[in-house]
Write a structure and sequence with these properties.
Belongs to the LysR transcriptional regulatory family. Helix content is 41%, strand content 20%. It is an alpha/beta fold.
Length: 309
């Protein structure tokens, strides 16, 4: 096994001498004697056999070799600091990893805004963002494999905070047969056409949500795949409003007028499946997501007005 010739403390002292402009200034900042710093850097250079600093007047300057090695050393000392902070966080029950399961229909711009606010305070916690659909979202709650879940319904026995309401529209290509009908589409007529559905992420999917009465169904993995297929003039699909803004703007998709249902509305909730064991990092992210609710409501209202025009 390789045995290091140098110590982390020696590299930290070298950084301080460079960053603070000399031995005297670094000694003041580190609360050490100037002679001890001088000794540490001299020993570091002797151990490496490389000149790292040269003193001109009263100021120390890096040599070319010193610039290269100090740049690498900064990564080393930062990694050590991160490692020590992680140990402290674990000791304080700060989670090393947080898992968030978010239903695919929840607007991602809302989630990403919360993550941006959370990141500076995350203390190095790893974050896993898992996209879920339908029964798969429910399983993240009932099986408690996620720390936080954003879901379109709350399973029995759990509690959730309301986040927003998302509107789903039935859409197809403007040249599709359904788009050519002048009167509202009868549900019986709709059932005769190919429907695109998003794959349930559950290991044991249960068809208990949504309109699934078409005789023909194609299953795709995500909303983008459904949009791409419909842009070829194939099928119709129920999609959340936030995924349709660009397609409507470019007139790539047509919103169907269905008798008895111009749209579907789903309310989303933030749920902590293990609420009695929630850690401080998860609690902070939970609060960041909730803090953006009002902002999300204003944005949603603006989007709905654009869609309606």
């Amino acid at each position: 096994m390789y045995r290091a010739k140098t110590t982390i403390e020696q590299w930290r002292i070298l950084q301080a001498v460079v960053d603070f402009g000399g031995y005297a200034q670094a000694a003041t900042q580190l609360n050490k004697s100037q002679s001890s710093l001088n000794h540490a850097v001299t020993k570091l250079q002797d151990q490496l056999g490389v000149a790292l600093l040269e003193v001109i007047g009263r100021k120390a300057y890096l040599t070319e070799a010193g610039e290269v090695m100090l740049r690498r050393a900064r990564h080393l000392t930062q990694n050590i600091q991160d490692l020590e902070e992680l140990a402290t966080n674990i000791n304080q029950n700060w989670e090393p990893e947080i898992t968030v399961a978010a239903d695919l229909a929840y607007p991602r711009e809302y989630l990403y805004a919360a993550l941006k606010a959370f990141q500076p305070h995350s203390r190095g916690s790893r974050l896993k963002i898992i996209n879920t659909v339908l029964t798969g979202t429910e399983e993240a709650i009932t099986e408690k494999w996620a720390d936080l879940v954003i879901a379109g319904s709350i399973p029995k026995g759990f509690l959730g905070e309301p986040l927003c309401q998302e509107y789903f529209y039935a859409v197809c290509h403007p040249q599709h047969e359904l788009a050519q009908l002048n009167s509202p589409v009868e549900p019986s007529e709709l059932a005769q056409h190919l429907q695109l559905v998003i794959k349930d992420s559950s290991r044991s999917p249960q068809e208990k949500q949504g309109w699934l009465k078409s005789e023909q169904r194609w299953t795709v993995s995500d909303f983008n795949a459904a949009i791409d297929i419909m842009c070829q003039g194939i099928g119709f699909c129920w999609l959340p409003e936030y995924t349709l803004q660009e397609a409507f703007k470019q007139q790539k998709l047509h919103k169907l007028n269905i008798k008895g249902s111009s749209f579907r509305a789903i309310s989303f909730y933030l749920i902590a499946p293990k609420a009695d064991k929630i850690g401080p990092g998860t609690e902070l992210l939970y609060q960041q997501i909730l803090a953006l609710r009002q902002c999300n409501a204003h944005q949603q209202k603006a989007n709905l007005q654009v869609t309606s025009t």
